[in-house]
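Notes from the 1:1 (GR / supervisor)

We went over the backlog. Supervisor wanted to see one worked example end to end before approving the batch request, so GR pasted a single chain during the call. The sequence is below; no edits were made to it. Supervisor asked that the structure be written out right there so they could see what the output format looks like.
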Amino acid sequence: LARKVFFDTLKLKARSRVPALGGSVGDELLKVHVSYGSVVQALIKSYNKPGRARVVKGLAHLTGGGFIDNIPRVLPKNCGVTIERGSWPVLPVFELIEKHGKVDNTEMHQVFNMGIGMVVIVREDQSAGVLRSIRAQKMKAWEIGFIDSGDRKVQLA
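Structure output shown during the call:
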């Protein structure tokens, strides 16, 4: 979809510079994906110690399917999740795809991850500490929603 919007709709080339992207279309589409392995290992080691209540309750790597398809896989049957749009900065590439591709915002959250690569579900009373731990490892992190009762569905608010 990104290639269709940039190359077919906007008639850009891979080396076309787009000010909103801070570089070329090709550079944006070929950016290296973040590896979350070391951050996840550190969180589990720090917060899920044997014999203690687990703080990290679930992890969802947002690959194809975005929020809608990936988060429910780690939810218990009686839980749902509300993702609060606007609680993190959306990357310009997604804004351009949504606008020029005329893609509905809800579809953008299903097809793409909107800049969120990993969701860590934690106890509410520990969320501030977990955020500090992630940020201390030079990763960006935000509180983007909450768990409530439900049927393993994701609500976008």
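Supervisor's comment: The chain has a mean pLDDT of 93.
Batch request approved.
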